Amino acid sequence: MTSAGESRPYLSVVVPVFDEEESVALLHQRVREAGRSLGRAHEIVFVDDGSQDRTFEILRELAREHDEVKALRLRRNYGQTAAMAAGFEVARGAVVVSMDGDLQNDPADIPRLVATLEQGYDVVCGWRKERQDKLISRRIPSLVANWIIGKVTGVSIHDNGCSLKAYRASVIKSTSLYSELHRFIPAMSTLTGARIAEIVVQHHARRFGRSKYGLGRIWRVFLDIIVVKMITSFSSRHALWFGLLGLPIVALGAGLLMLRLAPGWTIEEGLLLSTLAFLLFFLGAHVLSMGILAELAMRTGDFRPGRTLQPTLRMLEVECDRDENGGRNANGR
């Protein structure tokens, strides 16, 4: 627990929750035990992502009874990435651990994650080697997605989807998160030169409630993979990214035009080939021009990806926060 004499905790555990009224009290107890086993000051940051049940009421009571608990609430359900980003922003510890709020991640693994981080790493990822989830809807899509992510990003992690991770605060606070990119934190953190490790962690079957994810998220994951590849590999070379897309189109158009010049085509066939060739030329030129515009926008504009989160963070309702002296504010905020 954080005492009045120690203004900053060493460890912050960030837990986004959504309709987990049956889990949060037991989860708090187990996270608290894990934090105490470290022998260092810690805090637990719960972020209620717009729950419709009694989750936040329970969190508010926990925050009133326990000094190490900080309860935040988003006005509506923004998604796990926004909830994590909100928790990371208010976390005060030098080490930050994220985990799910459904008791499938085991808080007993937190000391091992922290110990590995202290060996000189910046991000330590949990690997649910013995995953206790449905084979068809969760495990097989996860295996495929992790393999693709490793090939595309070059960051070979067995389990990108495991929320149980430890970070140095300086790394996670400088990693821009938006959309649904919480699954790609290891890849995104490489932009800051992060050193990444992975350890096997426990995984338990869900005891309460129901899963918030299904097969419907698969297409979003694959779209996010494209976004992450562009960010990690072409964030400062937009023309190259669009060039890789546009030049093959131009080359295909040139090939069709050369084919059109060969003898033996009827008028209708020649017209069709010519039309397709010029359409491909125009499409390729359009893609290349987008790359040039992107380069100009990046060089002359002031866009910062992290700003996309600000509207969400401004809508936070923070309950049971502490003032600079370690006490509670009069209005509980």
Shape-level CATH architecture of the largest domain: Alpha-Beta Complex
Tell me, what is the CATH class of the largest domain? Alpha Beta
Strand percentage lies at 5-15%
N→C terminal distance: 19 Å
SSE arrangement, N to C: EHEHEHEHEHEHHEHHHHE
In round numbers, the mean pLDDT is 79
Q: Work out the helix count.
A: 11
Question: CATH superfamily of the largest domain, called what?
Answer: Spore Coat Polysaccharide Biosynthesis Protein SpsA, Chain A
CATH topology of the largest domain: Spore Coat Polysaccharide Biosynthesis Protein SpsA, Chain A
Largest sheet strand order? 7-5-6-4-1-2-3-8
Using the CA coordinates, give the radius of gyration: 24 Å
Provide the low-confidence segments as ranges: 1-5, 303-312, 314-333
Query: What would you call the shape?
Result: elongated
The total strand number stands at: 8
- Amount of helix: 40-55%
Q: What's the assembly state of these chains?
A: single chain
* Tally of separate domains: 2
Q: What summary fits the major beta sheet?
A: 8 strands, mixed
Q: What class, by secondary structure content?
A: alpha/beta
